[in-house]
């Protein structure tokens, strides 16, 4: 069982009509802008919970897709190429020296799902307004990646291979945002932006998705009867991904003061669970090589540390409890075996074998798609 933080896709946005902002020079451009607004409105209504469409109609309109997650992914995949085309043509106009100051007024508003205020604001979600098409692309791509992650969790444990693929695709989009889009953006006149629109948070999310992809891959490896030595390394690899994510957050502590403590607890708790699973498999591996004393030492040390990290979230606490009980049962079994058969000395903590990690998953690189249609604006 995996720990999971499902609030990442719970973004909200406000209405945006592109044809009211960009003056079309010809009917084809106007049609494109209206189509763009229409596609966005469907996303708005879905994530804002304001759609009046019934489940049956929604399923029929989507071609038979059965879950809201699948349908939202379809809407985003239809909207993004149209948005990329608008951004492309707006940049063409702005690169023209004679129209360098052409900046139509956009009122783009998105909320955050990661800040403390988003959980405790009684007046509703906190919105950030940034008048830049790049902000729209960033938040839409972030939502798309978050929805891919939701879909990956949705199909567990029925399809482990496809689930891992979705997690890797989400990691690729977050990586694309962190390394290709956000570092070069300058939000003019904007005092603050949501955590989702920062390079460090997208880098963190990419690492989390890779960790989740590897966790799913481990489940497949367990089904195949992979050796306990390799499983120990794979679980520790998950912990290493999450450790990197924590390091990124600590390195920008001044920029993420408002990050939800629950999100931070999720990362540290998930890391602790996989460290424990790694040490449990390591102990089993040591046992098979007749190192009972070292195996007992590893389990004792692991339980001491993990009991200090039990989270407050009930669903996560339940996972911790199950893992601790399983590890404790194995420890008692090994201690009993050692008392009656082996009589091995238990090494001190600093004499125990150090865990080794193996990271075997990579991102699936994101390649933006653009609907190639000519657009012409009145300047």
UniProtKB/TrEMBL annotation:
**Xref: CDD domains:** BRO1_Alix_like_2
Q: What positions does the domain BRO1 occupy?
A: 1-379
- Which InterPro entries does the UniProt record give? BRO1_dom, BRO1_sf, BROX
Q: Which PROSITE patterns match?
A: BRO1
What superkingdom heads the lineage?
Eukaryota
What PANTHER family does UniProt report for this protein, alphabetically?
Answer: BRO1 DOMAIN-CONTAINING PROTEIN BROX, ENDOSOMAL TARGETING BRO1-LIKE DOMAIN-CONTAINING PROTEIN
Q: Which family does it belong to?
A: Belongs to the BROX family.
Please identify the protein, giving its name as recorded. Answer: BRO1 domain-containing protein
